[in-house]
Design a protein that fits this description.
heterodimer, A: mainly alpha, disordered C terminus, B: mainly alpha, Arc Repressor Mutant, subunit A, 66% helix, disordered N terminus
């Protein structure tokens, strides 16, 4: 998918995600019009959104967790 | 020696003095050189240092009380950054530049580590390295970091800002508000873009 297409897909999917799920099919048809490519991409993403769960929500680095000083870490690894 | 500067026009109050050299600089430099020579064990020792230093550094940098002052990363991090960045002199143009580089560095280290671990699991004669807490999390989430990295590269071609948001949120752990501050966009925009990026990446990896 190129950048231009992705921007169009985002413009369709993002507002639909804010709406009640039952209204998604109608909104999808209305938003995509005759653009089959956008329709297919958008519907696939909407379907995926129902299985998204907490995918990559938890960061690899917890910036806000207390952490030992680097010097202590360094000592552990070098001594 | 290093030439790390925060030139953020909003935050910087003057030129940054060179950070003090710590007793650890030599060891870190040695580890980096060993890593660049192909010693994967050196990377396993370096990674937790970089992770924690980044965390401390970012925490300090985002601390409101410190926002008015120039960025003064430790000599340890200076050395890590410089060596990882082809030993080029780096001047931070702004917070986005700094965090962008930090996030990319984190990503590169973690993905390299994951690739190495994958090879070890395949039995390519490489001994598995001890896993850092970050990699424990990857396993916990059943996440293939190498595939995620590949997908993130594709996303960056379509939508560079979304890829940046993923790096900052997932690889460095910035909150929505912090990410918004770094990228100078609104938190609702970060939320929207983050959701779409996660969705696209999830579909790609499914």
């Amino acid at each position: 998918m190129n950048s231009k297409m992705w921007q169009r897909v985002k413009c369709v999917v993002d507002p639909i995600l804010e709406c009640d799920r039952q209204s998604w099919p109608l909104l999808l048809v209305e938003s995509c019009g005759d653009d089959v490519d956008v329709f297919l991409q958008a519907s696939s993403l909407l379907e995926a959104s129902q299985r998204l769960g907490s995918f990559i929500e938890r960061p690899l680095i917890d910036l806000h967790a207390p952490s030992p000083r680097a010097s202590e870490i360094l000592r552990q690894h070098l001594v | 020696m290093t030439n790390l500067q925060s030139n953020d026009s909003k935050d910087a109050t003057g030129p940054l003095t060179e950070p003090p050299v710590t007793d650890h600089s030599h060891e870190v430099t040695l580890l980096l050189l060993q890593w660049s020579d192909g010693d994967k064990e050196a990377l396993s020792q370096l990674m937790p240092l970089v992770c924690r230093e980044l965390r401390n550094l970012a925490k300090n940098y985002l601390d409101k009380e410190n926002r008015a002052h120039t960025l003064q990363p430790t000599a340890l991090v200076n050395e890590v950054y410089l060596r990882l960045h082809d030993r080029r002199t780096v001047s931070w143009k702004n917070s986005a530049h700094f965090f962008g580089f930090a996030a990319t560095t984190m990503r590169r280290i973690l993905v390299d580590h994951a690739r190495s671990h994958r090879r070890a699991k395949r039995g390519d004669g490489i001994r598995p390295m001890p896993l850092d807490e970050s990699l424990d999390l990857i396993q916990e989430q059943n996440l293939d970091l190498v595939k995620l990295d590949d997908a993130l590269n594709l996303l960056a071609e379509m939508d560079p800002r979304q890829a940046q948001i993923v790096e900052l949120r997932f690889f460095v752990g910035l909150t929505v508000e912090e990410t918004a501050a770094v990228l100078e966009i609104s938190p609702p925009t970060v939320k929207r873009e983050w959701r779409m990026a996660r969705l696209w990446l999830f579909r790609e990896l499914s």
